[in-house]
Structures are given as C-alpha cells and as structure tokens.
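Write out this protein's structure.
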Amino acid sequence: MRSLFRLALLAIGLFALAGCDLLPSKKSDEYQLRGNTMGTSYTIKALNVRGKVDDETLYNDIKKTLDEANEALSNWKDESEISIFNHSSSTIWLNTSDRFHEVLAEAQTIHKLSGGRFDITVSPLVDLWGFGPADNKNPPTAEQVAEAMANVGQTELLEVKDNPPMVRKNKPGVTITLGAIAKGYSADLISRTLAKHGITNYLVEIGGDLMVHGLNEMGQPWQIGVEKPDEAGRSVQLVLPVRDMGIATSGDYRNFYFNDAGQRMSHIIDPTTGKPVTHNLASVTVLAPNGMRADGWATALLVLGEKEGRALADKLDIPAYFIRREESGFVTSSSKAFDALMAAEK
C-alpha cells in the first residue's frame, strides 16, 4: 500500500528518475544504477567505489539483494512470502525469513506507538474506498465499512514471534501489505550491501524513500528536496542537508477524488475509523536512523494529522516536517527533533 501513500522526494543535483533496465554506469569512481523493483523505480548512487569492488560484483550483489527483498516482501509477486501468507486461510504459526520478520516486527512497533494509525492489515479499507485495483469511486455504506473493518487491526488479528521468527493471522481472511514500509527497508538492505564492500558515501532511493550515508560529491551532506504538495505541478518546498539516515515523505495530493457531494476523498485511510482522513495535513517528511522506520512513521504521522502527529513526534523524538493545506496556501511546521537536526547541519 505504500505505493498509494508515496510521493517522490527530489534529490537535488541528482539525475532524472525513470524506469529502465538494470544497467550500471561508471563515471570516475562513481557508480550509478537505475531500474525497477516492487512496482516502482529505484536509483543508487555510490561514490569512491574505485579499488573497493568491481562493477560486475557490485551489480550482482545489488541485484541479489533486490531479488531477495522481492521474494519476501513484494505484493506484486504471486510466489513471494507475503503473497503466500495472504493467500493462506491458515491461522497456525508460520515460519518467516529474517527479512520478512524484521519488517513485521518494526510494523508492530510503529502500530503500537502510533495508536493503531499505522496498520499493515488496512488493505480491505483501501480497496473499499476506491483506491485499490477495482478503482471503485462509489462511497461504501456503513455496513460495508464495518465488514471490511472485521479484517483490519494488527493488535487483534496479527501476531509476530521473535524466537524463532514466526507470524500468524487470527482470522482466515486477514491479509497484510507492506507497501508503507517495505521500500524503505529495501533501501536499507542495499545500504548494507554497499557497506559490506566498504562504500561509505552513497544515496539509495526506492520509490521516493531514501537511505543516504556519508557525503555527496561536493564533500557536503546530501541535499534532498522535499516536494511541495501541489497537485497542479512539481516544485521543491525545502532542501534538507542529510547524512547517515533514512528519509521518507507521505502525502495525500497525488491520489484522491471528489465524491458526489464535492468532498475531497483522500487515499489516506485511518485504520481506527475505517474512513479517509478529513484533516488538512498534506504531507509529512520523516528522518530516521534507517529507511524502514522513516517510511513507516511518515505514513503514521500523516494519518494522525498535524496536531496529533507533531505532538507524538515530539514525544518520541522523531524528526518530522509537516505541510498543511490552508486557504491562504501551504503552511509548514516541524518537530523539535527536526529543528535540532537541521540546526546541527548548518
């Protein structure tokens, strides 16, 4: 479902992103790779590669990392671990791979800390409100919402065990989607692959989620642009100097429709109410120690709205940047941790 929540982060000074075949290119000791994975595009830019690993070895390791992530986490792959889980009606404990378990465990943590606003069982509601494959824009009835809600709720319907890593659903019809966290996690996996080869300066982007480390080619923190949440066009709201962390943005302005009453229906669904959110928060950007955490919290804070989201970000020390929609235009705010982080980079 993260593909529904995602907006693109623009990497200032980087190259245009486009879907293409896996193809490494070398400029000096810089390594660039672009391609497609998990239903979206990715870009990798690694610096100071010369003498550490040859192009072919690095390419093969990155490809293997992405293939393994898809095998575990992709809702677009019928034989993936998550798809097999979803298609099963069994409620017994099932063994999981380390990758699948790592994401499930983080999802459980964010779900609990966000008061259920982040929920990987939310797919039935997304489909019901017209943002799934059926693309149905007819408003559901209260009975239909209640029926969908019967299969939504991580706390009651999903259990995750650490040792050994296992998962089970407590109702046969429960399904999960990791779109709001898996791409950030995949960026983390590539980051680990690069680090294994001694590469310390790099940017990894998957579907708008980023993991950056070290410095850019100018010897400065990576300059990451946060997109202005304007459905009429694309422009940069703010440029963030970032190093050694994950960055993700969730927004409501690329996927919405107006119902018959003229009400704006966002694809951002609150799992606790079963309905699209009605607040005026347009986007949230989160910075975290890794891409997976940034990815999940960007969604959770967007569902909460600016007031509750910023209060929780302050409580949990999460660097977060909020853009809300007002009649006068866009208005921004940020958490205390975000302000401190930006001040430290000046």
